[in-house]
Structures are given as structure tokens and as C-alpha cells.
Amino acid sequence: MKKSLTIHDIAKLADVSSATVSRVLSNSSYPVSPELRQKILRIAKEYNYVPNMLGKQLKTKTSMTIGVIIPTITNLFYSSIILGVEEIARKNNYQVLLCNSFQDPALEDKYIQAMFEKQVRGLVISSISSDKRQLKHFIDMGLNVVAVDQKMGMDDVSEIDFDYYKGGHQATRHMIGKGHHRIAYVTAPLDRPSRISIHEGYLAAMKEAGLEPLVQEGGIESYSGTYEFENGKLLTRKLLGREGERPTAIFACNDMTAFGVINELSAEGLKVPDDMSVMGFDGIDFGAMMNPPLTSVLQPTYEMGRLACNMLLDMLIDSKKAETGIMLQPKLVERESVADLRG
Amino acid sequence: MKKSLTIHDIAKLADVSSATVSRVLSNSSYPVSPELRQKILRIAKEYNYVPNMLGKQLKTKTSMTIGVIIPTITNLFYSSIILGVEEIARKNNYQVLLCNSFQDPALEDKYIQAMFEKQVRGLVISSISSDKRQLKHFIDMGLNVVAVDQKMGMDDVSEIDFDYYKGGHQATRHMIGKGHHRIAYVTAPLDRPSRISIHEGYLAAMKEAGLEPLVQEGGIESYSGTYEFENGKLLTRKLLGREGERPTAIFACNDMTAFGVINELSAEGLKVPDDMSVMGFDGIDFGAMMNPPLTSVLQPTYEMGRLACNMLLDMLIDSKKAETGIMLQPKLVERESVADLRG
DNA sequence: CTGTTAGCGCGTTCAA
DNA sequence: TTGAACGCGCTAACAG
């Protein structure tokens, strides 16, 4: 194992001072004569010099690293956001420290602390922890935070928001427009802002149309990876077991849940959309691959990631305070899982 | 924005030397009197002391960070590996620097360089770049590498391998055992070890049974996220358009491709498995959610990630050389997409 | 233009 | 048991 050299080693080899080496190798704008510059560059290359960023960062107080905290990377929704974050980070020579919080507030706090210790000064987070004291403290210490997916409602936190309410409303309107009157809403626990907003959008649209809402809410969440799917199946089973007239359409809080709904319907011998219509929420790629292709509300996750990272870098570079925030708009993608009941 | 304090600040407040503070706050085994220890701990807590890891790491030459380079995080196969890596990393107080290489060798090299500069000394990688010189160089400089998914065949690189050959063989045997004779193999470009091995396993099993292989290979790969699905559709279309007798079963190189196959078959009015059987490879969760549930070869991705990270940490801590490597065994999960043609 | 010097925050000898 | 002093690798202020 070879020992890696420092600018001092290079300096000795080139018979100059380490300051000059630093100025050349760090692309400083400080003037250095062309001859020395060439010489230093040549030697650095010859000896495979690799800078030690820890030294540099300790001095300049900037770790070119941003942190990302999301519930779990195996959820396509989040991995897509991360991809967007990373693209922008890469283009600006930043790197991404990834943390899966599994929605565990303690773990979330632990990660934030660890990243702050590593001098990470920028954070993209989807947090559901309600106690923001620790985060607040780090923000006071200079941490910049952009929230995605789940809004935080904190002064110093910028938000890349999505209009979940409008999305829920729009989806419901769509089904009503197709002639559906009995529309059920099937959802994972209403324990966070995004889900609550979709739910409210649904309720509002139903009320406006003078229709009776029918909500089936899931129980405690797990992180088995197939939770949402299983939850969709379970809630559908409950829904079908209910007394009274069956709904003609089921609206699910996200696409994975919708897949579960469809699967259960199929197991019960019900065809989608002939016997029952299904509407998703997310617009993940998989929806287009299902049979039938799932009608859904598109969330521009990749774009959310890009915007979040850009906003964060702006904050880091100009050290300006939280921007006003961005509200992304939903877009309904009509595929084939919702039947037209009119005529 | 408050200024964060250093051990010197704490030292002044406690009226001791910074050395003593360091010994207490870094949990050194060095003896410090209980009184001073308590006093320092109290003050550190009171003033919300946060250590600066850059200083520590510069001194101790260890960044508690490992790097992960995979093609793209939006592929469930890889995100699941990462989750396993991160779990083990977390338990050992390491953090994960994530890089999506998009199978771009130049980007891969750039990331490796950047991580090495940040003093990352451990790397989990799924690489398809053929030029390993740069990596080799960093290994000589002290980088520890564990390869997952794609084997590298380098002396100093440990490998978490999966028996792709056996998997391909096993899957093919399974279909043959169900009475299939005309079995097509549909695959993304055979441009990397894993795919080549599955293909060879298929060929061998067919040959052993005295059957004629029928391979349909895909063209240039993109990273659209739906590439594999589209590729499955395209290849199926080509396959069905061929002259001669149709196969009774299609074996796809991975589950996403299999979903495309099924989708296309369905579009052509062919039912799975009644009119055509389909076999996948991966065993991703989604397979169980499809209709029909996909028979596939299970790869323990999460376990691969865990093993890779454990192996890496062993190398980092004991600085022992590459272990012998681990070969994970395939396991066939029979679901409902392969028909039994016998009697 | 170049070099000397002084830290960044921390851990770790070596003396006391 | 404690503290003074040094250095990890680098940049930046100041002199020359």
C-alpha cells in the first residue's frame, strides 16, 4: 500500500513552497508563473497526487456534501426524488449522503446529528417526525433545509410542495365526471400532511357533487416493502364485505395501494374497469405496466428532487434565507382503469 | 446563526485543557478524574457541543463513511441492496455516500476519485466498466472494495456473488419439468457477466434436455426507467412474429422484462399461463403483485447488501485482505405464471 | 509572482 | 491524572 502524498511532498519535489502548490492544484485564481504551474502539474500527475478533502474542508468550512433523509429508498416514489437530487448535486460537484429513516423520529434525529457533525450544511428531507426541536437547533447553527413530500411548516425551511388537496379533488372530479356516484376512498393511515390533504380533496369533491363519501382507512403501518399492496388488498376486502350498495369506483391513496386493490378485486372475480373502476395516486411508472394500465394523478418526483436540490444549493451558496417555496401541480394521467358509466 | 464551539471553548469554560476535554468527549480510554469528566460533560451538554468530525477524521485518518456505486437507484434490485448495506453501516455508525453511475464508466471513475478524496476507504460497487486501472490504483492506495451483482475478477476485490448460471439452469429445468419443450429466452444485451451467466445456464439446460434453444436479445440499453419493460414488449413482439412453431414458454432475464413480456402477450390476446408460460428472474416483490403472480428465481438482494457491507467493514477494521468471496444460491419461487403441460 | 506563517478542530505524544 | 505542544493536509493573510 503506497503512501499518498501531500502538497508538501509535491512542494519538495518541485522545489517550491507548499503555498504555491496549493494555489496551482486547487485552481486558485491567485497568480502563479506558467513555468511553475506546469512543473507542479506535471509532478502532481506523475506521482498521482490525490488531494485530501478533509484538510481542505476543515480549512474552508465547506463539505461539498448534502444529506438526504427519506423514509425508505425501496419506495419508487422516494428513489425517484433522490435521483433528481443527485443529478443536480453531481452537476455542482456535490455528493449525496443517503439516510433511510423508516419514519423513525429517533433515527431521523440521529442521522441529522451525524451529518451535521460531518459538516453537512444542506439537507433534503421528507420528515414526519413531529418534534422539530433538534432540527430547529441545527438550523440555527447554520443548517439549510428543504422539505419535500411532507411539509414542515417551519419558518426557515424551504418547501417543495405538491398540491395533494387539488390532486385528490381532481381525481375525484374525474371519476364523478365519468358518471360514478359511489366512490370509495381507500387510504393508509391519515397520519401525515400529504395523506390528509388528498383525503380532504376527495371529501370536498364528493360534497360539492352532493355525494356521500365512503372512506376505508388502514391500520398501523409496517415497512415490509409490500405493506401498501397488502393494505390495498385488506381494505378492499373490508370494503366489499360492507353492507349496502357497493361502490362503482375505488380511489386509492397511492399507486401501490391501488395495485393491491386491483389484485384483490381480481381475486374476488371482479374485473377492472368493467366491474369496478380504480384510481391511483402517484403516477409511478409501474402503473403503465399494469393490466389494465392505471389511471392516476402524476407527481413529478424526479422534478421535485431536482428542484429541491437546486433550491438547497442556492441557499448554500448565497446563504440567503428560505425562499417562498414551490407548489407543484398535479396532473391527471388517464389510462384505462376507470370506466365511463355515462350512456 | 450561532457559532459552534470547539473543544477549546469547552476547555476554557471548564477551566481545563483541551486535551482533557478531548479525552472525555471522544470516549478515550485515557484516565480522567470523575469530577472533571462530569464537569466537562455537563458543560458540553449545556452548550450543545457538536464535535467537528472533519478535524477528528483528519487526525485519525478515518472517515466513517462508505461509498456505494450502483447503476441506478430507481431499480428495485439495487435499492434493495443499498437498504441492506445501509442497515449494516448504520449499526456500525458508518454512513453511506450514494452514487448512481448509470453504467457510465467515466462517471463511475469520477465518483470513485471524489470519494477517495473524501477519504472514503470502503466501497461497495456494481461495476460494468471494463477498464479497472483507476480502481486498481486506488486499491493500492488503500481503498477496500466489495463487488456485488457484477463480478470484477480482481485479486484485491471481495465479491458477493450470485450463482446466475445455476439460476438460469434451474429456471429452465423447471419449465422443462413442467412439460415445456419450446422455451424461448428473452434478454437485455448480453454485455455483462450476470446476464451472460444466466444465458449460459439456459443454454446448458436446454442442451442437456436435447432441446433447441431460442434466444431473443435486446438492443442498446437506455435509462428511461421503463427500458426493461419496453424491451420485454419489443422482444416478445419479435418473437411472436418469427416463423415456425411458437414457443410454449418465455424465460425473461429479469422480472421487469417479464412484466413487459406478459403485457405484450396480453395485448396480443394471449393469456398467461394458459396460452403461454412466463418465467422471470430476480424475484422482486412486484412479481407477487402481478396477475398472474410471476414464477421467478429469487435473488436475496437485501441479504447481498448486508453481506457486502459486513465484509467491507471486516476489511476496514482488520485491514485484512480480500476474503474468499461468497456465492449466494438461487431459489426458485413458484407462483402461477408457468403452466403444467403434462397430462 | 513567491514564500513564510498561522491556523481550521481534533487527537496524541511527552513531560510534569 | 493533567497540560503544553505538535501535527493531520490544506488555505489564506501577509511580507517580500
UniProtKB/TrEMBL annotation, chains A, B:
Record keywords, A-Z: DNA-binding, Transcription, Transcription regulation
Source superkingdom: Bacteria
A molecular-function term among this protein's GO annotations: DNA-binding transcription factor activity
Pfam families (UniProt xref): LacI, Peripla_BP_3
Cross-referenced InterPro entries: HTH_LacI, LacI/GalR-like_sensor, Lambda_DNA-bd_dom_sf, Peripla_BP_I
Keyword Transcription regulation: yes
Domain HTH lacI-type: 5-60
PROSITE patterns: HTH_LACI_1, HTH_LACI_2
Keyword Transcription regulation included in the entry's annotation: yes
UniProt name for this protein: LacI family transcriptional regulator
The species this protein was found in: Paenibacillus ginsengarvi
